[in-house]
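ARCHIVE CARD
CATEGORY: sequence design from structure
SOURCE FIELD: tokenized fold
FIELD CONTENT:
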């Protein structure tokens, strides 16, 4: 088969080269040159699934465009539907990224197995026997799922036409290869070309496609950033492999909000959605322990109660250690400085360790007050009432600042049986009467007087 014409382009400045070289002679950047197709108008390389005709598109008035046939495929997994903004839009292309072993293949295979429509699961990483073994673990006897172990894009297209599935899974985009490019699978040009042709097929046929994407060491999706621009939706599956939870988050969604998250737990028989995550995130220890505080945080649009653990001990060396897991270390240092300056606590000679339980990472500033409470609790060795929780940001002046969606946080805390919640006095609350006691405060000192009285 004749190869398509390719050339090498610098991804930084766009200069074209005849062959690959390590450094761009134009902009002097290293490792920016990749092979790209320069003739994409090849007839044989694009496949038509019999729906498109080469009509030129005309501008249309927005109110005249009908969206009725843009049906959403409702997946059997409600968490996944929610993260996608209410099901999978027909013809959309979703990229699912995540670290190895986090459960991407499991999640997608499970979706295929439970779906009543015909689905085609294409794996470039596992043999069909391996997939079958995984499917056996997940159960579901009756299904409509076809599997194919293939990496050649052209063969995959042929099978799509034969099977006519309602959903296509590609596991993973980094293993795909088109015969029109000499570059090896996983190279930037292969990933780009395969993705753009899959997108074309999805748009023409209306079949939704989910692509699995590998993640590089630094946590970004492997392959060019442009991949994320090309697809309609980017989902990220995260959470530490050793921890209980896996969180599915949407980073980009052309068909819905990006604030929703789905929470899963890996069990012996696949991934199970976690309906009430707060209950598991808070440990159920009987005895009172110091150094623990509960924060009501928002993960996307979902309120969650999480447990914050702090350990304060006398520093052995001159410079005290500050270490945090799941919480920004700079913010911890800032909060410690506030504590020292505004509340007169001498922490300079103390090591401070902070941990968010359940392997969670929180960015919500509403965690601040709980972090300070946990640190002081450990420092005083005084436990905080197990039924207390916190939802406020702390400012540099030691002021307790309001946070967004405070009523939702209060409701969640109340639902989970907390008796008291500490918030900022600046929060504007509606007239709703809560069973939970609300403590509005202006200064952190006032909060601690109540908590550690
Ligand atoms: P996998 O889905 O292959 O992850 P990825 O495709 O993201 O690399 O891996 C899932 C991990 O979960 C694997 O290490 C085995 C484990 N697992 C279970 O604990 N229970 C199960 O039912 C399955 C299928 C996998
Ligand atoms: Mg996999």
């Amino acid at each position: 088969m004749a190869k398509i014409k390719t050339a090498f382009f610098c991804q930084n400045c766009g200069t074209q080269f005849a062959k690959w070289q390590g450094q761009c002679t134009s902009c002097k950047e290293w490792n920016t040159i990749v092979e790209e197709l320069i003739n994409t108008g090849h007839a044989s390389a694009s496949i038509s699934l019999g729906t498109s005709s080469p009509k030129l598109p005309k501008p249309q008035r927005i109110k005249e465009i009908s969206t009725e046939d843009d049906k959403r495929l409702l997946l059997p997994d409600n968490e996944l539907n929610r993260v996608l903004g209410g099901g999978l839009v027909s013809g959309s292309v979703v990229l699912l990224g995540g670290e190895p072993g986090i459960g991407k293949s499991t999640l997608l295979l499970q979706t295929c197995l439970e779906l009543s429509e015909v689905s085609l699961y294409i794996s470039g990483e596992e043999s069909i026997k391996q997939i079958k073994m995984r499917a056996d673990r997940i159960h579901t006897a009756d299904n409509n799922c076809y599997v194919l172990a293939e990496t050649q894009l052209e063969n995959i297209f042929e099978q799509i036409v034969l099977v006519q599935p309602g959903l296509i899974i590609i596991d993973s985009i980094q293993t795909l290869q088109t015969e029109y490019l000499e570059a090896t699978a996983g190279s930037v040009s292969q990933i780009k070309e395969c993705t753009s042709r899959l997108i074309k097929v999805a748009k023409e046929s209306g079949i939704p496609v989910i692509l699995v994407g590998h993640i590089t060491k630094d946590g970004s999706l492997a392959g060019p950033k442009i991949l994320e621009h090309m697809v309609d939706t980017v989902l990220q599956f995260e959470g530490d492999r050793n921890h209980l939870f896996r969180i599915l988050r949407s980073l980009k969604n052309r068909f819905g909000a990006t604030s929703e998250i789905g929470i899963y737990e890996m069990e012996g028989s696949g991934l199970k959605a976690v309906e009430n995550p707060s209950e598991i995130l808070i440990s159920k220890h009987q005895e009172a322990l110091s150094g623990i505080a509960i924060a009501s945080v928002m993960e996307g649009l979902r309120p969650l109660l999480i447990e914050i653990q702090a350990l304060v001990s006398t520093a052995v060396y001159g410079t005290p250690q500050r270490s945090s897991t799941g919480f920004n270390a700079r913010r911890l240092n800032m909060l410690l400085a506030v504590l020292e300056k505004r509340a007169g606590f001498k922490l300079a000679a103390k090591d401070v360790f902070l941990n968010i339980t359940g392997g969670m990472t929180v960015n919500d500033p509403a965690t601040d007050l709980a972090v300070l409470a946990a640190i002081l609790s450990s420092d005083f060795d005084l436990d905080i009432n197990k039924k207390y929780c916190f939802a406020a940001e702390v400012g540099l002046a030691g002021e307790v600042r309001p946070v967004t969606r405070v009523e939702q946080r209060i409701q969640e805390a109340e639902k989970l049986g907390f008796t008291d919640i500490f918030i900022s006095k600046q929060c504007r609350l509606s007239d709703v009467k809560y069973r939970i006691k609300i403590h509005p405060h202006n200064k952190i000192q006032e909060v601690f007087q109540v908590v550690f009285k």
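CARD ANNOTATION: Residues 98, 100-106, 134, 137-138, 266, 268-270 surround thymidine-5'-diphosphate (ligand 1) (CB under 6 Å). The domain at 280-451 is CATH 3.30.230.10 (Ribosomal Protein S5; domain 2).
SHELF: design records, drawer C
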